[in-house]
Amino acid sequence: MSEAIAIDAGLMRQLIDAVADAIVAHSEELTALDQAIGDGDHGINMKRGFEAVQADAGKIAEKPLAEALGAIGMTLVMKVGGASGPLYGTLFMTLGKTVGAATDVAGLAAAFAQAVDAVKARGRSEPGQKTMLDVLVPMQHALRAGGADLLNRLPTVAAQAAEATVPMRAIRGRASFLGERSIGHMDPGARSACVMVTAACRVLGG
Ligand code: ADP
Ligand code: MG
Predict the structure, then answer these.
(1) How many angstroms does the Cα of residue 103 sit away from the middle of ligand 2?
(2) Residue 134 CB–ligand 1 contact under 6 Å
């Protein structure tokens, strides 16, 4: 990633399209993961939410970055539903509030850390409980570490982090109702976070 961050309307449009397309392309996989340890709606929820974001992409992309992120978050809260909608909504809305001063990777890392903290507060959750946080927190750490080749490393970090949820026992969300039986399956929200990060990095990496 180049040190300076400049996300103009064109790039925002590409990011929205890439993330939405990736979620739609993976929606059956996400649903299958949620069928194993949840109620089988995660792919459907996420697809509905990101199709709504994409439908508004032209308008959203024209907004200043902070407002665009806020609008994405609001749409996710309203359209995704389930546990994941308010949590991803919180992530994007908080990023909208905190990203303002970010002009480089360090600033973005600080904004992302606050957004992840807001997800933790909203979900009353921490990493290690087999949730989306098990990908979001490693992302936060990788961003803070920064360095060359960050955009190539983030998708790998995310994939490994999602894989690491397989042996975990769920302590939060619907999967926690399964207790021991949640072990041996990847967390659907960890996988959707990985799908989003991977799509966004591909666009930013040019
Ligand atoms: P629901 O569980 O209401 O059906 P989804 O299926 O859309 O909602 O989303 C499930 C995902 O949400 C889980 O795989 C997990 O990653 C995430 N999740 C659920 N509860 C929490 C929580 N308290 N904190 C963080 N993430 C959570
Ligand atoms: Mg579900």
Answers:
(1) 36
(2) no
What single DSSP character describes residue 29? H
Helix axis angle for 188-204 and 27-37, nearest 10°, is: 160
Low-confidence stretches of the chain (pLDDT beneath 70): 1-4, 101, 206
pTM, full prediction: 0.96
Amino acid (one-letter) located at 25 = A
Position in ligand 1 atom list of the atom nearest CA 85: 7
Instruction: Please list the residues that pair with 82 across neighbouring strands.
Output: none
Question: What integer pLDDT is reported at residue 1 of this predicted model?
Answer: 47
CB proximity list for 49: less than 8 A, separation 6 or greater: 23, 75, 76, 79, 80, 81, 85, 88
Q: Residue 102: which residues within 8 A CB-CB, separation 6 or more?
A: 5, 108, 110, 111
What pLDDT, on a 0 to 100 scale, did the predictor assign at position 103?
A: 75
The boundaries of the domain holding residue 79 are 5-205
Residue pair 188/42 in contact by the 8 Å Cβ criterion:
yes
CATH number for the domain spanning 51: value is 1.25.40.340
> Is 82 near ligand 1, meaning CB less than 6 Å away?
yes
Ligand sitting nearest the alpha carbon of 87: 1
